[in-house]
Batch of 3 targets.
Target 1
Amino acid sequence: MGFDVKPKFVTFDMNGTLIKFSINDAMREVLGDRLPAEVADEYLRICKAYRIDECTGVYQPFHQVVARSMERALNKVGLEYREDEARAVYERIPTWGPYPGVTEALNRLAEEVPLVIITNSDTAHAVRLAENLKAPFEVIISAEEMGVYKPRLRAFEYMFDKLGVTPDEIVHVSASPMYDHRSAAIMGIENKVYVDRGFEHDEHWLGYERITDIADLPVLLGLPRP
């Protein structure tokens, strides 16, 4: 278990991997009694599907991704869409913090290799969320900067160009096979780490190292446990 070579960068997905992406909780709170218990789980399931669908077309700001996915999902379950609710959900995003242990693991890793974020957040949110992680990042790449969202392959091409690296010179870390690791595998990134947060299925055939404790990440890069 682990990687044989020291990478030029370790690149990270942020929301759901490092930051606890609490959008379902936010939608439950904002929608309140308007989201009946009997349809809540179905609404959240299809809203997630619509979010990724909205990310695969022509680029639009992330507040529109949130709004359009909420609108489509609410319509699907027969509820009224309200623009102010979508805005309220979007505006909660930069208040979210890291999963336990993330800040410590990132700072440990940063002693040895530069860290990079590639995120589907807008630029302003990306900067604020990265600050919440309290760790040093060499580069923060937002979807707004790229003009495209993961899982689009162009996102990874942009990252390679921005960092001046080839796929074999990085380790990519994400909690999402759907948004990240499928595309990373297609693009030739062999050194991948799946942080299993329990919200997606393990797709082990993609050839990543699977961890459930972020403290194991520095160990994969050859660092001893503190």
Note: The first strand starts at residue 9 and ends at 12.
Target 2
Amino acid sequence: MRLTSAIACAAVTVAGLLVTTAPADAAITPVSTKGPCGYTATPDEPPARPVSLPPDPKHTPDKGIVKVLVATNQGPMLLSLDRAKAPCTVQSFLHLAKSRFYDFTTCHRLTLYTTLKVLQCGDPSGTGEGGPGYSYKDELPTGLPNWPTDPTGAGKVYARGTLAMANAGPDTNGSQFFLVFADSRLRPDYTIFGSVDRLGLATLDRVAAGGIAPTPDDPAPVDGAPARKTDILVARSLGTW
């Protein structure tokens, strides 16, 4: 099952001394940062909340753990971001947190499948369709253990406490992320960039225990909006980065 995130951004127009008019259906070349991460504006849709492309230095910081405090109305979560595992992802997440992109947003999706138990957040629109107006490459995990009952070896264990990026296919990372509150089976197609602490897991357990909000079409859903509405009030890194 894919954990999807529609990523979007506004179109960019470049003007010179001699102005010419391009055909209405001419393709627009996306703007990209020049560093190794290559954060690329996505012209098809606007960002859910105004934010710039992240800094992209010639050498992306790739050592150390950065702590990010995520305060929610259901309790606190302390995230440990691992630069060595996913330097471009950590750089983007810190940029979005510093830009207050995540503040006062709602975690829009809870899954309670037998083999997939995650809370998904990071879309200011609260719909699951919003992003930061840019995308960037995958930094996929290696060496994950096989799911015990998957004879093909394709399904891997995303362990309880894992912090990973949602996406809509290869190299479509944006702002949406998910937190794993019980060991889950996924293909290794989702960038792991950190973990959530013990208190954060208690918060996730509280949200999961509330279940998923029923709808007229599905009175007992296993995938949908948490019944215990979960809002990120503030997300901030602890210390300089």
Note: DSSP finds two helices and 14 strands in the chain.
Target 3
Amino acid sequence: MADAIKVLIVDDHQVVRRGLRTFLEVQDDIEVVGEAADGAEGVARTEELKPDVVLMDVKMPGMDGIDALRRLRELDHPARVLIVTSFTEQRTVIPALRAGAAGYVYKDVDPDALAGAIRSVHAGHILLQPEVAGVLLSQEESNSGQGRGGSLTEREREVLGLIADGREIARALVLSEKTVKTHVSNILMKLDLADRTQAALFAVRHGLTR
């Protein structure tokens, strides 16, 4: 499966890991390359196995999923992390996404939807279940988001739309990576946002997607 999406499962419950592996192993385009029982092991296994997508639980003994996400972000690891958890509280959702998660789904997600979520985040999209997106969008609105989009240049609005669509910005706009990074930095500064996840949600909320 040379072109299969390589997946690492990080969860402290063996039954959950086994269930996820059993389902994913029947997918023609997904390969489970390993498992880990906590965040620290998850970081080590990510470095070792170099998966494309990491399925990460949030609440685990020792290093939890959010700390593991921060560690992977510090290491600038390219793996996309999809949170798979039973916790829906705002105090869990927001830190996970700010720490760099590419998506957030619940453990009772339909198996086919989970496979679709893996494919989606691997393709570069940000994936949130509706109620999770609602939490972030409501917070963004409460932080006086209205009107901030007007301070963007036309090019910055194009870049913001591509961030939300998960598309490769440099190729789509025929720009250098350095120029793209400058545009993204300007967008985050002007909109007072922390990262690309918040930028994508802002774009969705204000109709800036393509």
Note: The chain has a mean pLDDT of 82.
